[in-house]
Amino acid sequence: MSLLRNNAAVYGLVLVLAVVTPLAFPTYMTQLALLWAMVVFSMTWDTMGGQMGYNSFGNIVFYGIGMYACAVVQRDSGLGYFPALSLGLAAAAALAVVTAWLIGSGILGLRGHYFAIGSLGLGIAAAEIAGGIDYIGAGSGMTTPLYPEGIGKREIFFYASFFALAVATFFALKWLYAGRFGLALNAIRDDEDKAEAMGLHTTRYKTVAWIVSAFFLSISGGLMGNLQKFIDPRDTAFAGPTIGVWMVLMAILGGKGTIWGPVIGAIVFLVAKELFWTYLLGWQYVALGLMIVVIVVFFPQGIMGYIRERHPHLMGETVDPAKGEEAAK
Amino acid sequence: MLGNLQILFDAPVFVVDLMVNGLLIGAIFALAAYGMALVWGVMNIIDIAQGEYVMLGGFINLMVIQYLGLHPLFGIPISALVMFGFGHVIYRTVIHRIVDKDMFISILATFGLSIVIAQMSNAVFGADVRTADAHLPTLLFMDGLVSVGAIKLIAFILSLVTGFVLWLFLKRSRLGQAIRATAQNARAARILGIDTDKVYAATYGINAALCGAVGSLVVMAWTIHPYIGLPYTVRSFMVVIVAGLGNLPAVVLAGLGLGAAENFAGFILGTEFQIAFVFSLMVVILVWRNVKLKRERKYLK
Lengths: 329, 301
What we know:
The structure holds two protein chains of two kinds. Helices cover 74% and strands 1% of the residues of chain A. Chain A contains 15 helices and two strands. Chain A has a two-stranded antiparallel ribbon with strand order 1-2.
């Protein structure tokens, strides 16, 4: 039977873990909030890289835009903390969606590795440009407003927000993949020319996919700016070499093109990352780089791909032994 | 921004200064790009770690000065040699596993490599911006309004000479012919008795050596620090997509053009936007070329 598909028990287990873990380890609340943020990063990347086959290094642009847009609204709107935060997140999402739509029509015409490198350039250009604009603090960055309530409540609030965002992202993407949209994305991944010949408006689908990806990612960016309290253009907002690469890595580690893969990949990756930060301090980035090389070179199919290879019945795939033997002949 | 533009109109001599210095650095970009084109054409790998080899070459030259007490010009062949070995080691450990895989795998793997190399250099050499003083004079032209460091001139000439020697090597030598044969059709080359694995190793080593030479020129003429790699990778990439694979005159022209364009942009927009200009220019070039191809219902391949 299918272990990981449509299984209420799995959802229940995740929900219980999501509530119990922060209660059991209240000191790790920020890291656990980061976990759900990572889940959002890798799921939104997988919409482009896994489902559609457009390996983007530039999704970080929307994360950074979300972070800055939210912080600017919070700084300039003059509202209370929570109304300003809500308005900021809405502004973040709106700005990111518009940006994705505008640049998407140009850069999504590129294919394969040209898209990968073009989007990489986009991410770094965004960081450098943000680092030169005085309105958003230029190279010295911005601070986000202080959380108004008492100690400890802040962490709980952001943990809950990120968890809600991750759940919303998960089900929104699951719903999208289940319908015609998901089929169109997979068709683009498998053969874009044929998809176009079949009458799909591939450019429209690609842009919509990027907009969906940008929408959720920008909200996570806005929240993350508030969780970290400080925004640096290169190191936190448009952090291409860290978060921008991690989201790719998490999706690949979990298994590209699956709904659970990015979630599992994010959890495994974050645990590994925290271990590196704890035990290899000073060399943690070296260890992370090595991890990228090792995963990409030796384990490109990911955890879900591995399970599908070895235990196809767990993935709800039925293998007819007679047919298998026929194929083997 | 407009004020800077006005200066250029009021004092055309600055145009000459920017142009000359831009062209001089352009030759260095062209040399690094030639290495990238070589690896791309022969092994079908886009090497994101390219810029990190440039950076390592610079640090090797600094070590040559510090520990051997030699003049930095001697650092060029030494760092090229060391980097050839380094490239070989990287090929044997990582690159040979990804040669026949999907191109995105190679991009991501070399990206990981570049992070490892940059972070290691940061840990070993420190994050400071470094430069090597070659004790050469600065040449002044036009009443001292156009200043060109002699070392930049030497770097320019050496880059062009190295590029030409490499071109001759690929055309004439036995190994060069094997490299070109492998680039044309690896399978056929194997059938005809060429050990393509060795050819790939040599190609990757040559690329690293070229980058090493570039780096030791850069450290003398400009500056170097552990995170300088990615801009050099992107510049090489840009030159290659404009010039195409294996077209030496076009690579030189594109490199020189990029150098000049970047220098003007740095002056007009301000130096804080120079890197942003490089990366944005790459995106614009990619999109522009693709839009042009799209009219013929094609896309960049």
